[in-house]
């Protein structure tokens, strides 16, 4: 149950509360919003029509309160089971969700089921999904799997998708995300180009985003608070340049953050800037060059990324230099999808990619250049694990963030092959607001511009 943001809300929500427990009846749900279509007007391909997708905005909810709810139309009658969810705690420096689960690149495989089963038993209060959701684009429209992009789309000038994968994925995830709020940001597998250049249709229709609430009016980037944490969700597969809309929105959003209410500032986007694996090595360098300075100047504490199918934790870093005031970068593209795991490191002999092969067409041109300083000066890759890489391992798993107070947060990575309570990597991430000067813009000053 994500926070909802549809403006034409077709349903009514009746809320009654008694001693901290509330009941919500959502309904009647009537087909006033159109279903989602995916069209492939090419010989031999199938189109897809979804069921009706409803987004319902619940207003007036109280923080840190347990709500029970049912959805449906009692007049038919057709009502769902009774579900429940707990709202986030109020924003403030002493108020945090206990456990936030973070995972990327999930897909829907046996490994995904292991990840989600471990994640669920860690009892999270909030789930962050850092892009690459269902991998529906690795199937032909008749449902046959197809990992070979260049050779497997003989009947179609564009890459096909099999949209029922989204329905399978939704049914699989229902047990978790009917109870725990989930926030999602898009990955490359959500592009899903179809006829008339339509992209991101399933992603933008199936999830609800607090876009209006955070002033972005886009499903591709938005922000929200969860207790004393301000989360910024960024889009890597749309315009991120300094003159573009997303960047302008980001500047405004950062300027509006009040660190006395939300001391923690966490940013997420799909492709990592600081990954040392061979797969996708320095692929998002154009985005880094545009946005890193701005995020740094506002003292972003933690960055979550996916895309690389493995786990990696960085030391605090800025512009490839160790910097006590830079963010900690955590790559968690280890959800268990059907593509291969990343195992090779770019710093191993023979594994440094040729720079011209590294860009992704959606993330700009060739921006990655050889390093100009440090042990890898003049080269494209280090010859050992770079100093900004603190820990890396090719295993599937998920992470749990537990913010303890204004300055301490415990990060734990759990591996799928381990027992539930065994830890794969664990560290306290400690903020130093007194040492790291953070750009602050006074509210009254913003109101004037
Ligand atoms: C898919 O939709 C397109 C556009 O509406 C249509 O031209 C085509 O015939 C449809 N294909 C099938 C198999 O129904
Ligand atoms: C993925 O799941 C399969 C089937 O359960 C298992 O054999 C395999 O070890 C898992 N792979 C990883 C990397 O965890
Ligand atoms: C789906 O289409 C592909 C490509 O045309 C074909 O090779 C495959 O056999 C089809 N699968 C099914 C289940 O019809
Ligand atoms: C789709 O994109 C291509 C390439 O950018 C362009 O030539 C074409 O006109 C576009 N089609 C539509 C329907 O917008
Ligand atoms: C960049 O580094 C690579 C080795 O990592 C080297 O082969 C190449 O010549 C360098 N390019 C430039 C322009 O220095
Ligand atoms: C913050 O939490 C950490 C870890 O629980 C603890 O060691 C530290 O003393 C706390 N700091 C404050 C100011 O409460
Ligand atoms: Fe990806």
UniProtKB/TrEMBL annotation:
<comment type="similarity">
    <text>Belongs to the metallophosphoesterase superfamily. Purple acid phosphatase family.</text>
</comment>
<feature type="domain" description="Calcineurin-like phosphoesterase">
    <location>
        <begin position="99"/>
        <end position="311"/>
    </location>
</feature>
<keyword id="KW-0964">Secreted</keyword>
<dbReference type="InterPro" id="IPR008963">
    <property type="entry name" value="Purple_acid_Pase-like_N"/>
</dbReference>
<dbReference type="InterPro" id="IPR015914">
    <property type="entry name" value="PAPs_N"/>
</dbReference>
<protein>
    <recommendedName>
        <fullName>Purple acid phosphatase</fullName>
        <ecNumber>3.1.3.2</ecNumber>
    </recommendedName>
</protein>
<comment type="subunit">
    <text>Homodimer.</text>
</comment>
<keyword id="KW-0862">Zinc</keyword>
<keyword id="KW-0408">Iron</keyword>
<feature type="domain" description="Purple acid phosphatase C-terminal">
    <location>
        <begin position="380"/>
        <end position="426"/>
    </location>
</feature>
<dbReference type="GO" id="GO:0046872">
    <property type="term" value="F:metal ion binding"/>
</dbReference>
<dbReference type="InterPro" id="IPR029052">
    <property type="entry name" value="Metallo-depent_PP-like"/>
</dbReference>
<dbReference type="GO" id="GO:0005576">
    <property type="term" value="C:extracellular region"/>
</dbReference>
<dbReference type="Pfam" id="PF16656">
    <property type="entry name" value="Pur_ac_phosph_N"/>
</dbReference>
<dbReference type="InterPro" id="IPR004843">
    <property type="entry name" value="Calcineurin-like_PHP"/>
</dbReference>
<dbReference type="GO" id="GO:0003993">
    <property type="term" value="F:acid phosphatase activity"/>
</dbReference>
<keyword id="KW-0732">Signal</keyword>
<dbReference type="InterPro" id="IPR041792">
    <property type="entry name" value="MPP_PAP"/>
</dbReference>
<keyword id="KW-0325">Glycoprotein</keyword>
<dbReference type="InterPro" id="IPR039331">
    <property type="entry name" value="PAPs-like"/>
</dbReference>
<dbReference type="Pfam" id="PF14008">
    <property type="entry name" value="Metallophos_C"/>
</dbReference>
<dbReference type="Pfam" id="PF00149">
    <property type="entry name" value="Metallophos"/>
</dbReference>
<feature type="domain" description="Purple acid phosphatase N-terminal">
    <location>
        <begin position="47"/>
        <end position="87"/>
    </location>
</feature>
<keyword id="KW-0378">Hydrolase</keyword>
<dbReference type="InterPro" id="IPR025733">
    <property type="entry name" value="PAPs_C"/>
</dbReference>
<keyword id="KW-0479">Metal-binding</keyword>
């Amino acid at each position: 149950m994500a926070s909802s943001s549809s403006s034409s809300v077709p349903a009514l929500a009746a809320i009654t509360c008694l001693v901290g427990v509330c009941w919500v009846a959502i309904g009647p749900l009537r087909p006033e919003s159109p279903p989602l279509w995916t069209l492939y007007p090419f010989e031999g391909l199938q189109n897809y029509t979804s069921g009706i997708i409803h987004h319902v905005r619940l207003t007036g909810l109280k923080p840190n309160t347990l709500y029970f709810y049912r959805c449906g139309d009692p007049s038919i009658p057709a009502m769902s089971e009774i579900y429940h969810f707990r709202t986030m705690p109020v924003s403030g420096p002493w108020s945090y969700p206990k456990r936030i689960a973070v995972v990327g690149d999930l897909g829907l495989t046996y490994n995904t089921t292991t990840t989600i089963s471990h994640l669920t038993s860690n009892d999270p209060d909030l789930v962050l999904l850092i892009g690459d959701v269902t991998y529906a684009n690795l199937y032909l429209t008749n449902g046959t799997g197809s990992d070979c992009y260049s050779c497997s789309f003989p009947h179609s000038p564009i890459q096909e998708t099999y949209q029922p994968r989204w329905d399978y994925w939704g049914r699989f995830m229902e047990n978790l995300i009917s109870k725990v709020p989930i926030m999602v940001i898009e990955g490359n597998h959500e592009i899903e180009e179809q006829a008339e250049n339509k992209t991101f249709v399933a992603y933008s229709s199936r999830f609800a985003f607090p876009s209006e609430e955070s002033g972005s009016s886009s499903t591709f980037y938005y922000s929200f608070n969860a207790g004393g944490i301000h989360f910024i969700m960024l889009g890597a597969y749309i315009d991120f340049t300094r003159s573009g809309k997303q960047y302008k929105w980001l500047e405004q959003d950062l300027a509006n953050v009040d660190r006395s209410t939300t001391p923690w500032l966490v940013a997420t986007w799909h492709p990592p800037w600081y990954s040392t694996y061979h797969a996708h090595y320095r692929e998002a360098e154009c985005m880094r060059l545009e946005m890193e300075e701005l995020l740094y100047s506002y003292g972003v504490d933690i960055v979550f990324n996916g895309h690389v199918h493995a786990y990696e934790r960085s030391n605090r870093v800025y512009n490839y230099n160790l910097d006590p005031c830079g963010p900690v970068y955590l790559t968690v593209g280890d959800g268990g999808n059907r593509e291969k795991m990343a195992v090779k490191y770019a710093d191993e002999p023979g594994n440094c990619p040729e720079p011209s092969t590294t860009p992704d067409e959606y993330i700009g041109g060739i921006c990655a250049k050889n390093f100009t300083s440090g042990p890898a000066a003049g080269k494209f890759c280090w010859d050992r694990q770079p100093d900004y890489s603190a820990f890396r391992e090719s295993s599937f798993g998920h992470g749990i963030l537990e913010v303890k107070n204004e300055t301490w947060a415990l990060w734990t990575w759990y591996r799928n092959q381990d027992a539930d309570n065994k830890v794969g990597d664990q560290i306290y991430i400690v903020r130093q607001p007194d040492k790291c000067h953070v750009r602050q813009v006074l509210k009254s000053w913003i109101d004037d511009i």
